[in-house]
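Intended use. Records such as the DUF1579 domain-containing protein entry shown here are meant for training and evaluating sequence-to-structure methods. They are not intended to support clinical decisions.
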Amino acid sequence: MQFTKKLIPAALMAASLVLTMSAHGQGRPDSAALIAAQRAAMQPLAILDGIWRGPAWTILPSGEKHNITQTERMGSFLDGSVKVIEGRGYEADGRVSFNAFGTISYDPATKAYTLHSYAMGQSGDFPIVPSADGYEWTIPAGPGTTIHYKATVKDGVLHEVGDRVVVGKEPFRFFEMTLKRIGDTDWPAAGAVPMK
């Protein structure tokens, strides 16, 4: 009996050690392979790279349609594995009334894209799905309600619409922009601090 009482803890300790060694033996995923997978997955979004400008409108809470000039600059970062985006909305007098920043990334483990967005004092992570000619993304907006954006890029024109979708009702279009690609950009990769 004494021998058995001593044997059980020793066996448990040995099993624990084997499991720990096995887990450590798996190691971390290969960084180069992860970055290569991310870079390949981000390739469909390369059509977004550049500087864009054009008219946009949104429906205000009052119901009024508000027109602005929208600009976007988009570029690749971290060896092409992350897309970086800045959007600005300008009033007729030149004031910036809207400014947003976002990143799009791909996770090889989940095979999913995520848009991390900062705008109007808020931030969030939202699923985004590239398509053959653009992308779609959705924001939860309360019970039975989502905000759905869909964009297409064709012949140097980026067209994006935003709809409020409530279950059981027709979608309500509250946003639209039509931007022309006006140039290339080396943002955000340019300007890195050199070693010396």
